[in-house]
Amino acid sequence: MRPRGLLLLAALFVAPLPVLAQPRAAGGAAAEFWFDPTQLPSFTGTVERYLVNPRGETDALLFREGPQIVFPPEFGEAVRTAIPAGRPIIVWGIRARHAPVITMLAFAPNQDSAPVVVDRFYWRMLGRSAAEQAERMAVAGTVKAPYYAPQGEVAGAVLDDGTVVTIPAGAAEALRDLLRPGAKLAAEGRGVAGEAGRAVAAERIGDSAENLRPVPPPADPRRR
Q: Fewest C-beta atoms under 10 Å: which of 52, 89, 133, 199?
């Protein structure tokens, strides 16, 4: 994503700004911002489910209509609380050029609500790997959709039950047959499982638990 305008917009959101850090003023009134988030492209859909990463953080959701929405994990609880699964949401943000994934910059439950501004541009997914204390686990199921990084790179798969399987950057090409919708997928690695969801950073992967193999290294060693 190299257009000059987008790089400038990214720079604005890399460092949190004090006025953006408090999306609501005291008493629940909407805070004043230095820009109008509703000038950004808007995307409306119904939350099918929220997705956790292998660190246990909520940093994405799936629209029932298909696209994936990504946002900084520190906003996960706020988005879940404001818009439970099964409810509509309006997202202002930027869609990747070649994949159905949208980076959230503001959100609201409806047109009558003041948008809540996200104070950090989530353009690099940091939750793809598991935390050191994560438990070893195994998962298996049918792929519902690829799991995307904000810039549109395939970063794993979402299974029919909402389980997220992540892979290292640059490994998707070698695994594309396993990550396509409808494919059978099994994986082992470290991850989390709880009320918020389940996710594993794959270390071994295959089409069944009996056919697991090590996740291949990235094609480009610089992307490790």
A: 133
What CA–CA distances, in Å, run from 45 to 83, 99, 126, 195?
A: 11, 17, 26, 23
Tokens representing residue 169 in the block: 């950057």
Residue 77 is inside which H or E element, if any? helix 76-82
Find, among 95, 88, 103, 107, the residue nearest to 45 by Cα. Answer: 88
Q: What is the pLDDT of residues 194-215, one digit of tens each?
A: 999 999 999 999 999 999 999 9
Q: What is the pLDDT of residues 6-41, one digit of tens each?
A: 444 444 444 333 333 333 433 333 445 576 777 889
Q: What is the CA radius of gyration of the chain?
A: 18
pLDDT of residue 39: 86
Of 146, 183, 175, residue with least CA distance to 60: 146
Question: Which is higher by pLDDT, 128 or 96?
Answer: 96
The continuous run of DSSP H or E covering 8 comes out as helix 4-14
Nearest one of 156, 176, 172 to 164, comparing CA atoms: 156
Instruction: Determine how many CB atoms are found less than 10 A away from the CB of residue 62.
Output: 22
Q: CA end-to-end span of the chain, whole Å?
A: 20
Quick one: tokens of 111?
A: 């047109």
- What average pLDDT is seen over the chain? 83
Classify strands 135-148 and 88-95 as parallel, antiparallel or unpaired.
Answer: unpaired
